């Protein structure tokens, strides 16, 4: 079970592509202790009901490091609940080195913590805490200073890179996944930015495109050239046996070569994941989160009975999403590894519905799949 807790709507940055950019000033809610505790207990009970042996809790925002006290409290509560139920047979953190199950014949219950952060608020104390609790860190970092500062700005308009830079050496030694956003403003330096990220020592990253409905054919041509460079760089790292997971290219190849579906192995919307807004409302995944009372795709509240949440109209709509292909995608050879077809979050934010298909996303996915497949062809030849 995966629980995402949106601890706060507040953020100390004003990234140009942020999907909350038009409402930043009005976003001030902070998750109460009651909501957080109820959400964690809810997720723990749901995990047991599903007979799963793991619970992943991701602290999200806004910028969650604005609420470090809440993070610490949530971690302690989750550990307490796990130990009440499983005693010492609990593995905590992304590695199990610190856990010592009393009964090694029984698979330990796995409790994992993660945080999505822009890293501008990190200090030695926070870093030591995240290391001690074996957090996975999802780091918002677009690349070197010039590239990063194009979109990731502070409230006054200054770039945010200098606030992150001092922490990069230690972050590369932790369980950090770099998340970079590609926009029409920064796309032409994408490949250089990725090379820079790898050169710092990061071993795991992916990119996500800001689908704003305004991409032109000429801009996609520029992005295609950058993707070609990325694919060649990724191939270079593999040939040299450099450990570097570049999800942008690698994920497209993984689904082709294994025959798996993105929707069934990576998109766990509403089934393996539930996202909790600051006010306790529950959503199918992170991109749906909102504290607005009339927000689409509210599944229910952490204070509701599970049957109301997981048997309600939104849950039924999600099951419909999983049960059939989108009509617009019938016969498409890449549909099972295409975000326009397989990812509910991408469909929602680009069309307003999990069942919609964006022509912009479709164009991008066809382009990226073809470039990624070209890498395989080079290796075979």
Give a description of the structure:
The chain is of the alpha/beta class and 381 residues long. The chain is 41% helix and 14% strand. It contains 15 helices and 11 strands. Strands 1, 2, 3, 4, 5, 6, 7, 8, 9, 10 and 11 form an 11-stranded mixed sheet that branches. Strand 7 (204-209), helix 8 and strand 8 form a beta-alpha-beta unit. Helix 1 (33-49) runs parallel beside helix 2. The protein is globular. The chain starts with a strand and ends with a helix.
Number of strands: 11
N/C terminus separation: 42 Å
In N-to-C order, the SSE pattern is EHEHEEHEHHHEHEHEHHEEEHHHHH
Q: Biggest sheet: strands, sense, closure? A: 11 strands, mixed
Oligomeric organization of the protein chains: single chain
List the helices and strands and how they pair.
Blueprint: E1 2-6, H1 33-49, E2 54-60, H2 68-86, E3 90-92, E4 109-117, H3 124-132, E5 136-140, H4 145-148, H5 161-164, H6 168-171, E6 176-182, H7 190-200, E7 204-209, H8 217-239, E8 245-246, H9 247-258, H10 262-265, E9 273-276, E10 281-283, E11 300-301, H11 306-310, H12 313-323, H13 339-342, H14 344-351, H15 359-380
Parallel strand pairs: 1-2, 1-9, 2-4, 3-4, 4-5, 5-6, 6-7, 7-8
Antiparallel strand pairs: 9-10, 10-11
Helix pairs in contact: 1-2, 7-8, 8-15, 9-15
Compact overview of the structure:
This protein is of the alpha/beta class and 381 residues long.
Q: Which descriptors would you attach to this protein?
A:
alpha/beta; globular
């Amino acid at each position: 079970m995966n629980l995402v807790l949106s601890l706060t709507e507040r953020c100390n940055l004003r990234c140009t592509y942020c999907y909350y950019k038009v409402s930043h000033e009005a976003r001030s809610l902070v998750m109460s202790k009651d909501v957080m505790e109820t959400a964690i207990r809810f997720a723990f009970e749901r995990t047991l009901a599903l007979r799963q042996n793991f619970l992943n809790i991701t602290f999200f925002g806004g910028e969650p490091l604005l609420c470090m006290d809440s993070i610490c409290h949530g971690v302690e509560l989750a550990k307490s609940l796990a130990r009440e139920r499983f005693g010492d047979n609990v593995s905590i953190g992304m590695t199990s080195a610190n856990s010592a199950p009393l009964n090694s014949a029984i698979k330990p219950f796995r409790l994992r913590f993660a945080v999505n952060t822009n890293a501008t608020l990190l200090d030695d104390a926070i870093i030591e805490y995240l290391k001690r609790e074996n957090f996975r860190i999802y780091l918002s970092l677009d690349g070197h200073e010039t590239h990063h500062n194009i979109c990731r700005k502070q409230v006054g308009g200054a770039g945010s890179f200098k606030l992150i830079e001092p922490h990069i050496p230690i972050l590369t030694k932790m369980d950090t996944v770099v998340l970079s956003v590609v926009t029409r403003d920064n796309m032409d330096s994408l490949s250089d930015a990725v090379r820079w990220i790898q050169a710092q020592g990061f071993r795991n990253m992916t990119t996500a495109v800001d689908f704003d409905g305004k991409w032109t054919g000429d801009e996609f041509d520029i992005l295609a050239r950058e993707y070609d460079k990325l694919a060649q760089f990724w191939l270079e790292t593999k040939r040299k046996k450099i450990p570097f997971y570049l999800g942008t290219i690698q994920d497209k190849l993984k689904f082709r070569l294994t025959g798996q579906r993105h929707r069934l192995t990576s998109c766990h919307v509403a089934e393996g994941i539930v996202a909790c807004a600051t006010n306790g409302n529950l959503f199918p995944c992170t991109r749906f989160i909102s504290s607005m009372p009339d927000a689409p795709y509210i599944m229910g509240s952490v204070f509701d009975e599970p049957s109301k949440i997981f048997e309600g109209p939104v849950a039924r709509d999600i099951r419909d999403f999983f049960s059939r292909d989108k009509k617009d995608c019938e016969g498409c050879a890449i549909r099972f590894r295409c975000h326009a077809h397989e990812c509910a979050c991408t469909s929602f934010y680009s069309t307003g519905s999990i069942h919609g298909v964006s022509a912009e996303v479709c164009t991008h996915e066809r382009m990226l799949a073809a470039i990624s497949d070209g890498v395989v062809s080079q290796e075979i030849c």
